[in-house]
Each structure stands twice: as structure tokens, then as C-alpha cells.
Write a sequence for this structure.
């Protein structure tokens, strides 16, 4: 409805306005609001006329809604060949599906790690071999 308000909210505002302002001031306020709205409409119409006059005859059919980004996109879609655009999008989708399938089928699955045997000993961080290195452990000299 009006500014997102339903009929019940508007009725409540009218009743509150009548109680707060009094019935004698409401007609004068309505007349003032009407006069202000007419003045704003006149100013916007004159601004639109001036804009069209300054842009020249090649923009005579220009509407202010055409300057909104959504209007620009909508107009471009209307003038473009919908069948060609749709086919191009479908081709892109088909290419993406084919690329994804080739990537997924090109990499063989990674085999799970071999199970640990008791003779391998406890796991050691950073070591990727299953058996301990040969020889005694290295001694780090004390500083």
C-alpha cells in the first residue's frame, strides 16, 4: 500500500492526527501538503525538460528509468539476440562440464597408506620410511 503501511495503520494515523492537531487545522495542512507536492512535481518536470533540451534531439526518447542500471541491463537483453546468447551460455556450460570431467578422471585415486607393522616401532614425526635408519643414533654435541 502506501509506504509499506496497510489500511489499518493509515486509519490510525488519521485518527491520531485529528486528535493531536484538531479538526480545524487539518484542512489547512492538507492544502499546504498538496501545494508542496505540486511544486515538487513542477520542479521535476522542468528539470526533465531542461535535461532533454540540453541533450539534443537524439535523446528525445530518453526516459529517466533508462538511466537506472537495471533498466540498462534490461534494455540490452531486449536488443540482444536471445537465442544466440542462450546458445553461447549453453556452450560455456558444456565446456565447463567437459573440463571438470577430464580433471576428475585424469588424477588416479591416491592409495591409502600401508598399515603399520609392530616391528616398525612407534611413529616418528617427519620420517616417511617404515623402518628405522641403520646405525646408531647421532649424538648432538653439547655446547
Amino acid at each position: 500500500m502506501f509506504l509499506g503501511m496497510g489500511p489499518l495503520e493509515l486509519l490510525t494515523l488519521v485518527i491520531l492526527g485529528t486528535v493531536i492537531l484538531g479538526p480545524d487545522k487539518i484542512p489547512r495542512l492538507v492544502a499546504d501538503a498538496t501545494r508542496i507536492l505540486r511544486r515538487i512535481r513542477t520542479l521535476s518536470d522542468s528539470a526533465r525538460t531542461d535535461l532533454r533540451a540540453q541533450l539534443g534531439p537524439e535523446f528525445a526518447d530518453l526516459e529517466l528509468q533508462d538511466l537506472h542500471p537495471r533498466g540498462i541491463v534490461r534494455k540490452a537483453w531486449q536488443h540482444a539476440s536471445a537465442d544466440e546468447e542462450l546458445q553461447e551460455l549453453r556452450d560455456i556450460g558444456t565446456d565447463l562440464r567437459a573440463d571438470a570431467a577430464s580433471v576428475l578422471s585424469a588424477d588416479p585415486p591416491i592409495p591409502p597408506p600401508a598399515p603399520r607393522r609392530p616391528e616398525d616401532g612407534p611413529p616418528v614425526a617427519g620420517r616417511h620410511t617404515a623402518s628405522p635408519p641403520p646405525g646408531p643414533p647421532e649424538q648432538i654435541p653439547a655446547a
